Amino acid sequence: MSNPKFIPYTDFEHLKEEEMLKRSKEFYDKIKKRRTIRHFSNKKIPIDVLKNCLLAAGTAPNGANMQPWRFVVITNKSIKKEIRFEAEKEEHIFYTSRASNEWLKALELLGTDEHKPFLEEAPCLIAIFSKKIDVLPNGEKVKQYYAQESVGIATGFLIVALHNAGLATLTHTPSPMRFLNKILNRPEYERPFLLLVVGYPSENAEVPNIHKKPLNEIADFIG
Ligand code: IYR
Q1: Residue nearest atom 5 of ligand 1, based on CA coordinates
Q2: Closest Cα to atom 6, ligand 1: which residue?
Q3: Residue ranges per domain, the chain?
């Protein structure tokens, strides 16, 4: 059997405009309900749901199809505790000296501080790494292209997939995050991109009273 370089693309769904409008509206109505959650219950998440969401993330467009991402799923209590400890160490420095006053002021509406109990309370953390290079089974090193952009897009897919599946998320970026390599035993060429907290909102979870910009503030139509 030959392995052709190109194959016909037959999966595209050609929709009627009416259906397109309906679907675009339904998707917007669904995605606008997603909120970043900082109060999680300890209810466990179904691992097969998570696996499907990771597969969805892995379909993201990326540089030269090198798929320069690595998702490390953590449900182990003591590893979560260790991550919380290290993250809070960095966040303490951030909130007491690293962040400018301007930055701290910008964060006031979120009500965040150096305490990150959700890193232990939530049932699942996904540490997302971006690969600067890949190492083939024969030891050969291969450069990755547009790794940050690619991993950003895949992370977006993952967040949307999890929301669609009925799971809440928090994008958390303790900075610097290199401690994740050590705790999770990842090689140096994998750079921590984001720590995604996954679970269900706790019963009395609250979110900041903030709003998204209207279309005319986020888009220009030239034509
Ligand atoms: N990483 C810190 C600070 C922080 C920064 C931004 I920009 C946010 O949108 C939210 C938080 C923290 O997690 O508290």
Answers
A1: 107
A2: 107
A3: 36-200
